[in-house]
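To: structure subgroup
Subject: Chain for Friday's discussion

All,

I'm putting the inputs and outputs inline so they're searchable in the archive.
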Amino acid sequence: MQLMAIGINYATASVALREKLAIAPEAQAAAVVELAAQLTAAAGDSTGEALILSTCNRTEIVVGGLQVESVVLEWLATYCGVARAEFIEHVYTHRGRDALNHLIRVASGLDSMVLGEPQIFGQMKSAFAVSRGVNALGAELGPALEHVFAVAKKVRSGTAIGENPVSVAYAAVAMAQRLFSELAQARVLLVGAGATIELVAKHMRDAGADQITVANRTLEKAHILASALGSRAMLLAELPENLSDFDIVITSTASQLPIIGKGMVEQAMKARKHKPMFMVDIAVPRDIEPQVAELPDAYLYSVDDLKGIIDQNVKLRQEEAGKAQEIIAGGVEQYQSWVRSRDASDLVVAYRDATQIMCDEQLHKARQLLASGESPEAVLESFARSLARKMMHTPTVEMRNAAAAADKNLLDAARILFDLPESGPMDEP
């Protein structure tokens, strides 16, 4: 199985490093094309296959066919402008069966900081669509990822791994609830309008918050989410003048640069007369400058700070995670069997082709004999003898060599292949 997964995640690298190696959604197609081209150049005669998965918790590159780790690492360092030495000790690499097992765990949410999180499946599907769109999924990577998704769906449907809310979005809201006993009294600002913020909004509503504002780069997307909440929308450009109005700020955008800086928050705190502001930055790269945490009345938390809350409900999922791993192990074995059968089919085709060539040669000779006046009976006998000798020659030589070398495995295989009895002359020295 020619499959490799290489990358960093929340368990191996800090958010500061992960944001340096993050690849923006709008840049992923071009990045995949560039990486695949470099893999192709390294292989020489094969086409590079690649998928890039970049989320707040991980940047992971999946390669099919040629598995040149150094090419991938060099490309990542160059593309992100980060010295290889800065991240190499934080990198993990999985190959073959281990890579397939890892990818199914990722798609199922078993490898996430939030055990069983549902969002990662959609993120992987999106990455798959990007690679497929630029023809970067070949005979190795395409079927492997299709199988990953199929097994991940079985994990979701066959276990209760996702029943208890332990998403990053849930954790952010749970932390807010600890600080605000009555969320209905708190003014909430959600920055972004993607899937994560939608989930935050749902949990906020369920927790009783009803003073919610959605801010986004485009007003249209903000309005769509805001209208579903019965709340108001605003542009990111309006944040400096309005940030002071909010008690809770939760951000999750795809911006490559901070949206909320220390200076903006400092001005907001002055306008609030230093009334505390609770802020959670779920994004990677971060939406809020880390220096905001230095302000005395600004309580800033990153995605990594949420792990303590998440761990509380993770325990409820541990038993289901064990069931999930059993499903995954079965899925890995099933795929390996398919790969073996695929490889065997090539051998079967080659054997059939070689046999057909023998038959065609003997048939040609038989026709020549018939044309020269030989009797059909004599020609048939000659055809049968010649074809049998041709087909038996190589197997007979190999079985004799195996007997001389006491190669019992090959002799046993010959018995199975040719449907021979358990004992016979081939056992004699």
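Points worth raising on Friday:
Residues 425-429 have pLDDT under 50 and may be disordered.
The chain has three domains: 3-163, 168-310, 343-427.

D.
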